[in-house]
Structures
1.
Amino acid sequence: MKATSLGLILLLVGGCATSDSNNPGVANLERKLQQCYEESDSYTQRRSGNMQVQLTIGPEGQARDPRILSSTFRLDRNLEACVTGQLRAASYPKPASGKPEELIKPVNFIPVIQ
């Protein structure tokens, strides 16, 4: 499998900037990842950090085998489990090739101070 050209997710959750914020699917995924973060101990402790996530997008746009390759939140397993679950549940654009394609992207979490 080659890396996909689906320019799909470059997320900054909390400050919420994305490379594809006009895509409803990406905006919905951002909200769900934001919720994961806001319900985590890391958010309560006002810790910022990032994850490198990987998944395969199947021919019909379904997520396969989402996982976290690296994370600065290793002590917050609930956050990592929630992020993985949301990546698995999300729907993605079908790969133009019609074949499964790998997606590796960063997700950055920054607490919003109110």
Note: The radius of gyration is 14 Å.
2.
Amino acid sequence: MSKKVLIVEDNELIAYLHEKFVIKCGGTVIGKTHNFEEFKHLVNTEAPDVILMDILLGQDKDGVDFVMSIPDCKARIVYVSGSTDPLTLEKLKNTIYHSFVVKPLMFDTLTEILRF
């Protein structure tokens, strides 16, 4: 069965590449956003199986804040970020997530993430 994937990424090129990877893996992209309200709407209306979540989104809320706003969401959260500083990694501990992937996200890694 095709996994429904929500991509949260502020860099349009990276979001595009992630979308192509998801499709190549047999998944379905249900949305791409970096807007907090749109994110919450997509989570509530589309019920994604997987959320590929960037952390640094260039606004007052980061990806961890986004995830903390959906405590009842059953999606598999995968943080995909170039940010590996100790403060960011410490903040992740406040959320439940499946994995943390350092950018760039490789096709083989995504294939493993979507295999469940």
Note: The CA atoms of residues 5 and 29 lie 5 Å apart.
